[in-house]
Amino acid sequence: MRTRRDIKPNSPTFAHMGDFDIESVRVGSNRGLRDASPGHTEIWTFGWTPKFYRSYYPLYPLPTISIFPFIKKYLNENKPHPAPDFDIIADVRAEHGAILFKRTDNSSPCDNACVTSFISPKELKEIGTRILSFKPPSYSPALYLGRIRGAIKQAILEKEAHEQAMYRLQRQQCRRYRRAKTTDEPAPKVAENHSS
């Protein structure tokens, strides 16, 4: 979840969105919050990727996977709550320096949420600035698209090679089956005449 972009950081409404004692804030149903779940690109890549990484994503420019050690550490230190019998949602509220861990069972979400501190917004901004300083100087949308096109061509070639190999394999199996059928069939039995 993320506080709506039109809510200014120094406003009382922004502070209200960080009050996790309020059930609608904790659950994520408050009108001042919006879903900011990461897309595939935001999970795995840095923010300088020209497509599909939102500049307003709460962890920008970090890949979401980079916070996994925080999540793992918290869960290892806080067994058995949240209960391991249920799926757990890690709701990162980066603007408020917190992560909410919620169980996905049918009980009240407010009762099953744990709040833990996360990197402060100021520290997160400093990390982001430092990360952006490592952006490759020659990285451009044209280079990105060229690499994507190259990867697509390679995937198509590999798919075609796989399909040809499968076709050859099926043909070989059919030939073997036909050969086995013609050579392994027992000779037809001749009716025996038992006359006495």
Would you mind describing this structure in some detail?
- It is a single chain.
- Helices cover 41% and strands 11% of the residues.
- The chain is an alpha+beta fold.
- The chain folds into two domains: 2-138, no CATH class; 140-180.
- The strands form two sheets. The protein has a three-stranded antiparallel β-sheet with strand order 3-4-5, with no helix packed on it. A two-stranded antiparallel sheet has the order 1-2.
- A hairpin with a 4-residue loop joins strand 3 (88-93) and strand 4 (98-103).
- The longest helix is centred in the C-terminal third of the chain and has 44 residues, at 141-184.
How many separate domains?
Answer: 2
Percent range of helical residues = 40-55%
Termini separation comes to 97 Å
Shape: elongated
Counted by DSSP, the helix tally is 6
Q: Please give the number of β-strands.
A: 5
Largest beta sheet: strand ordering: 3-4-5
- List the helices and strands in order: EHHEHHEEEHH
Which stretches are low in confidence, meaning pLDDT under 50 for 5 or more residues running?
A: none
Structural class: alpha+beta
Radius of gyration: 30 Å
The major β-sheet equals: 3 strands, antiparallel
Share of β-strand residues:
5-15%
Mean pLDDT across residues: 81
